Amino acid sequence: MTLKNKIKVQGERWFPSEQPFSDDMKELWGDWYCDSEVGKLRAVLMHRPGLEIEGITEDNFSQYRFRAAMNHERARQQQDQLAQIYQDHGVDVYYVQNQRVDRPNAMFMRDLMFMTPEGAIVCRPAIPARRGEERAVAATLSALGVPIIKTINGDGYFEGASAMWINRETVIIGTGSRTNESGARQVENELRNIGVKNIIRTEIPYGSIHLDGYMNMVDENKLVIFPWHVGYDCAKQLLDLGVELIELTNIEELKQGMSMNFVALEPGKIVTPEGSPETKLLLEDNGVNVIELPMDEVMNGWGAIHCMTAFLNRDPVLPK
Question: Which domain of life is it from (predicted)?
């Protein structure tokens, strides 16, 4: 090759694609997306209770933050009923693989990941009795092809139920005993990086450990709240955004019946623990279609339907 010909072939001439990650997502990674608590539910990640709950006894249940010993077969049956409801409504149900057998809280998947429009944030639990569960979750997400956009690190801790989507532009993040400022800031930074404009920061009060202990979305722009735990600044920002606040005031049903621990299958249709008639009537009076399931055995672990369900795909919900 002559010197003249060599000069014509300069560099490799590679040029980057300017297409954003969100446009590549479905083709390169799969159909994974979440920007709300109520958009039509398409896919979830769960952990079916395994050997880890069989070691919970009358002598040790309190050290694992359980409220009573658990009948493991009955707990599995109750979760299986929930999974069947999901499947009956067209939801793909995936299960965590190779979870540790010394972590009896591992069924409560909402705490271990937080899904976004561009992938999952893998959480870092606050209490030592749960740390390490997130490793199996991360491995399962990777095997499914779900992008992991952040793993909480450094001195941060954050659990997925400490954040809640209102719509594509708005997320509530709470700090408290299960999420510190470092963890919340890491999540906020990732959300702003993918286009979330409104981050409503609030303090989770003593007496609740996660947001879903006192607020949960039932429909587009409809949020059920326990009014005595919602801070004024948080409520005011939500009202200014056009969110209707539905006040649930039956403390017994909220705390013992976990009547707010529900999952929306689509806007205005939820699956919820049975046994809270006043809450059911309140929801139906506000136009919500309510499906009830027995969850009393699962609730011995201080969790229920929302706690056991990590979203992988929901239809988008646009701000109104």
Answer: Bacteria
Amino acid at 290: V
Kindly tell me the sign of the dihedral angle through the C-alpha atoms of 114, 163, 226, 269: negative
Q: Output the six-digit token pair for 174.
A: 């709470």
Structure tokens, 114 = 């937080």
Predicted confidence at residue 5, as pLDDT, reads 56
257-316 pLDDT tens trace = 999 999 999 999 999 999 999 999 999 999 999 999 999 999 998 999 999 999 999 999
Predicted TM-score (pTM) of the model is 0.94
Q: Where are the domains of the chain?
A: 29-314
Measured distance CA(78)–CA(272) in Å, rounded: 12
pLDDT of amino acid 314: 98
Of 188, 172, 221, residue with least CA distance to 39: 221
What's phi and psi for 123, nearest 5 deg?
-85, 170
Q: How far apart are CA 139 and CA 122, in angstroms?
A: 10
Please provide the distance, in angstroms rounded to a whole number, between the alpha carbons at the two ends of the chain.
64
Element (H or E) spanning 84, and its range? helix 72-88
Q: d(Cα 185, Cα 173) in Å, to the nearest integer?
A: 9
Inter-CA distances, 253 with 59, 194, 226, 273, 290, Å? 27, 37, 11, 10, 15
> Cα–Cα distance between 238 and 242 in angstroms, integer?
7
**Would strands 310-314 and 41-46 be described as parallel, antiparallel, or unpaired?**
antiparallel
Provide the 10 A C-beta neighbour count for residue 235.
Answer: 18
CATH superfamily of 29-314: L-arginine/glycine Amidinotransferase; Chain A (3.75.10.10)
Pick from 224, 232, 233: which is nearest to 253 by CA? 224
Residue the block writes with tokens 């005595």: 228
Contact 202, 174 (CB under 8 A): yes
